[in-house]
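yo, Oxidoreductase is done. seq:
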Amino acid sequence: MSINKLKIGVIGAGSISDMHFESYSKQADAQLVAVCDLNRTRAEEKAAKYGIAQIYTDYHELLANPEIDAVSICTWNNTHAEISIAALRAGKNVLVEKPLCKTVEEANRIQEAVRESGKTLQVGFVRRYDANAQLVKQFIDNGTLGELYYAKASCLRRLGNPGGWFADVERSGGGPLIDIGVHVIDLCWYLMGRPKPISVSGNTYNKLGNRPNIRNLSFYQAADYDAAHNTVEDMANALIRFENGASLLVDVSFTLHAQKDEIAVKLYGDKGGVEVEPELLFVTEMQDTIVNVAPQVDSKSLNVVDAFNNEIKHFLECCRTGNTPISPVEDGVTMMKILCGIYESAASGREISL
Ligand SMILES: NC(=O)c1ccc[n+]([C@@H]2O[C@H](COP(=O)([O-])OP(=O)(O)OC[C@H]3O[C@@H](n4cnc5c(N)ncnc54)[C@H](O)[C@@H]3O)[C@@H](O)[C@H]2O)c1
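structure:
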């Protein structure tokens, strides 16, 4: 039986777009038909690599093509809102990369456009789609950890300001907090059952800059890397309080005098705890004894390729069924309130009520 394939356009053909192209290519019910990038050469390269017929440099033209059912938005953060809203109004389903956008005001406008259009919008909180995250969610939903009251998220790079648009606050909206912090904050919040955040207290630091002086240690640099341009924080930390009394402590950096990079996603309940990162592990009591329980799974930490496959598969399902995605626009809005609240708290030096 022939399948009616969903026709897909990808807007933004930079680094992360490959994960989207690869994942769509593996799905029997999807067909990549269009690619758009401001940089035509980049769009042409992806079109050649993935056998895509239509190439655009203006996303409005891509959206005007009635054949296209859904788009992935993989552009700079400052364009997520305008492209998402235009796509929804053009009747397209939208998978938008994290963060949803740059401001709460933009987030609210996107949410309104989702409501008005009745189309699907899925936020690319890819860590939610990892097999281990879903396994932990199942344990939590079944009460294995009891009431979760504390979580801790870290994503520390000791040398890793990618430069380019990532280091330009106008295009990115911020540094490590909005770029990599968003992933670990979101994962904790999702696994905690998405309690309502009531206040945030944060600090940001611009102490080390992007460290162009460092030799002998290489790191990822954006295509338009320019050591002279850096307007984002190099480190942030925050305490997020929730209505149910739970709290989340987070620290993130693009650069820090740390011995090594560090990633941690840890949740603590009154019946047990779990470390999702750096290595999946449950901690509980058995026979009045504390036991560390290591689930036997294929991958002990995030499997990026599988997580993206799951994310895209879920998006296609939601496009077909109209079901609400497991990372809906509402969660993107709440995450923008948390992130922007942290930046506001850091700027004003006081706790912010959300
Ligand atoms: N989910 C993840 O793990 C993950 C990882 C990396 C990046 N991201 C997100 O993906 C997005 C892109 O990041 P990247 O690392 O691929 O950046 P990138 O710089 O490699 O690519 C971005 C591309 O978007 C293009 N672009 C910008 N504005 C455009 C517009 N208006 N129309 C068409 N093209 C436009 C640029 O020319 C560039 O080629 C960001 O929002 C980032 O936060 C997500």
